[in-house]
Amino acid sequence: MSATASPAPTSAEAAPALPAAGSSFYTAMRLLPKERREAMYAVYAFCRAVDDVADDGGTREVRRAELDRWRADIDALYAGRPVARTRDLVGPVAQFDLKREDFQAVIDGMAMDAEEDIVAPDEATLDLYCDRVASAVGRLSVRIFGMPEADGIKLAWHQGRALQLTNILRDIDEDAERGRLYLPREKLEAIGLTNPTPIQAIMHPRIGEVCSAIAREAEEHYRATWEIIRRSPRKATKAARLMAAAYRLYLDAVVARGWTPPRARVKPGKFPLILVALRHGLL
User: Fold this and answer.
1) CA angle, corner 93, sides to 103 and 239, nearest 5?
2) For residue 204, is it left (φ>0), alpha (ψ between -120 and 50) or beta?
3) Taking the CA of residue 24 as centre, how many other CA atoms within 13 Å lie in the half-sphere pointing to its CB?
4) What are the residues whose beta carbons fall under 8 Å from the beta carbon of 37, sequence distance 6 or more?
5) How far apart are CA 108 and CA 114, in angstroms?
6) What residues contact 51, with CB distance under 8 A and at least 6 apart?
7) What pLDDT digit, counting tens, does each position of 69-94 carry?
């Protein structure tokens, strides 16, 4: 720390994190009216904070204790006793009827990463993980967007899984370096892999069969996502449309790259991303 640097804020004092300018999430949230946008930023700050605990929050015991404190803080928020780090959620919770169980589900999802490195979970565990870390965030989001309840919950279910499976495919090498492997056990066993290390799995000559199967599942979730979006009010789905279209570019990019190592990190070109922003940001 330099002589002029101020001490880092504690987790209870830290200023709310904002999404990186230029990211798909930032662009999507900028499409929202001010009140809804600020509510989404408050939810984002919460998600970012608990994600940081899960990934970089110290020893497993320290991470577990901090996530337990977050659980207690969410309970206190809903009991009318918000602490400093949940105060920005008071308005959104009241105005948009955000559900306590969705915040707690996000924490439970982060705990799955914090308590042990996930390696080749079974299909049911992987689906639960996707629901907690992605679809639960979607359920909070669609209420802020103003989606009708039934279709909003369905949209969160499918879009959360589509986006999270895309992340898993995009990040298999980076996750393996951290000792994590989110590809499901059943699909790995189908190519002859039983209890592999993450590195063994991603370097297997038939790993492309597993990744291609996950990509097809993600594609089905994107298809269902767009079916719901098309029958829903355009004003309430503008941010969801942009996120779905932008993330689909990532899925298409990793599929086009292929699965044979060494796998270059992929990112859609700037021009396709601009077209997505123009199409879904202006219409």
Assistant:
1) 80
2) beta
3) 22
4) 29, 30
5) 10
6) 110
7) 999 999 999 999 999 999 999 999 99
99, 91, 237, 248: CA torsion to nearest 10: -70
**Quick check: helix, strand or coil at residue 119?**
strand
Distance CA 241, CA 218 (A): 16
User: How far is residue 86's CA from residue 42's CA, in Å, rounded to a whole number?
Assistant: 9
Give the Cα separation of 42 and 35 in Å (integer): 11
pLDDT tens for each residue of 154-192: 999 999 999 999 999 999 999 999 999 999 999 999 999
* Confidence (pTM): 0.89
- Tell me the C-alpha distance between 167 and 251, whole Å: 8
Burial level of 57, CB count in 10 A (0-12/13-18/19+)?
buried
Cβ-contact 207, 191 below 8 angstroms? yes
Strand partners, 181: 119
- Summarised one tens digit per residue, pLDDT across range 213-254 is 999 999 999 999 999 999 999 999 999 999 999 999 999 999
Residue 156: C-alpha distances to residues 34, 67, 115, 125, 221 (Å): 22, 24, 26, 18, 10
Question: Which of 26-40, 154-168, 259-273 shows the highest mean pLDDT?
Answer: 154-168
Q: Tell me the angle at which helices 149-170 and 123-130 cross, rounded to the nearest 10 degrees.
A: 120
- List own/partner pairs for 3-10 with CB under 8 A and 24 or more apart: none
